[in-house]
Design brief:
single chain; 339 residues; alpha+beta; Arc Repressor Mutant, subunit A; SH3 type barrels; 4 domains; 5-stranded antiparallel beta sheet; 11 helices; 42% helix; extended; disordered C terminus; WYL domain-containing protein; WCX_dom
Length: 339
């Protein structure tokens, strides 16, 4: 199951239990229609929900659903039982409360001015409720961000508020260089604890996503931002966003390299007889792929396009010849000492 379909199913499961509890007995086809999926998909969801419940996971703790009856009667009614605890008010344990406080403080440090007030208000209520209750309040502090990162984020927020362009010095790790770019800031986004700048880059003449901790300096310009007809970027599906200009390549991965298909955003995956994989992915920077191929050697082979495969093979052969030419010859060294 793909990450997108897994995420969709999780969203349905979170809504399905309270939906059934509130509705009582509901025809299977009606449930499917309400959730905009097929009855077969709802049955798959119910099989997962059937295995959920309170810690202990014995017969008395699991949610009870008439899954077997629905398998024999697709037009039957869906019934849920032993799920009354879902309607109870949520009580946080000390570990849960501490984890939530940590998350809110991290969010507070990276939130924009517009959302900071909401986060502060929520954090204050949670801390007050924890101190007033029986739960011990654990004093946790998130490490302070580097001053350069905080300054860059503040400058970008100012550019957004004043509708101005910005000039940034951006470090590109894949090319080991710092580039000078003029951008039209669109939004500051948070993903996996990192702050990103969504912006239109005039150097690339395209929309780009910049990690703010890789921006070494920011200057807010006097020129107004140019307007671009762009939809808000959604990072829920991940950071990678392919471009029509990207090169689509096909790779063969050995069995020890199967992790590659989970770590990088591939377009398709096919198993091979030797337990390896063939994958396709969109590449915007050929140099990045060249470095990967040189790094993983025989574990990663470029199959298509043929021109790129030939270039990578040529670079690998040149590197091997250079290594042999500069290798330390122990026999020659011993002979020289003997003479």
């Amino acid at each position: 199951m793909s990450s997108a379909s897994t995420k969709d199913q999780l969203a349905r499961l979170l809504a399905l239990a309270p939906y059934l509890q509130a509705r009582g007995e509901v025809p299977l086809r009606e449930v499917a229609a309400d959730f905009s999926v097929s009855p077969d998909q709802i049955l798959k969801d119910l099989r997962v929900l059937y295995m959920c419940g309170l810690p202990g996971f014995g017969p008395g703790e699991l949610i009870d659903i008439n899954v077997e009856a629905l398998l024999d009667d697709p037009d039957g009614l869906v019934r849920i039982d032993n799920a009354e605890y879902l309607a109870r008010p949520l009580r946080l344990g000390s570990n849960e409360a501490s984890a939530l406080i940590v998350a809110l403080r991290a969010l507070l440090d990276s939130s924009t001015v517009a959302s900071r007030e909401v986060v502060e208000r929520t954090l204050a209520k949670l801390e007050a409720a924890t101190e007033a209750g029986a739960l011990p309040l654990v004093d946790v502090r998130v490490p302070e961000q580097r001053p350069a990162l905080t300054k860059a984020r503040n400058e970008l927020e100012w550019a957004l508020r004043t509708n101005k362009q910005a000039r940034i010095q951006y470090v590109v790790p894949s090319r080991d260089e710092t580039t000078d770019r003029v951008v039209d800031p669109i939004a500051l986004l948070l993903q996996d604890g990192k702050t990103y700048l969504d912006a239109w880059c005039h150097q690339a003449e395209a929309r780009r996503l910049f990690r703010v901790d890789r921006i070494s300096s920011v200057s807010v310009l006097e020129t107004d931002r140019e307007r671009h007809d762009l939809t808000p970027r959604d990072l829920a599906e991940g950071l990678f966003e392919s471009s029509p200009d990207d090169l689509v390549v096909r790779l063969r991965l050995t069995a020890r390299m199967r992790w590659f298909a989970e770590y990088y955003p591939v377009l398709s995956v096919t198993d091979t007889p030797d337990d390896g994989l063939e994958v396709t992915l969109a590449v915007s920077d050929e140099l990045w792929l060249l470095r990967l191929a040189m790094r993983f050697g025989h574990g990663l082979t470029v199959l298509e396009p043929a021109e790129l495969s030939d270039r990578i093979r040529g670079v690998a052969q040149d590197a091997l010849r250079l290594q042999r030419a500069t290798a330390y010859d122990e026999t020659d060294s011993t002979t020289s000492r003997a003479e």
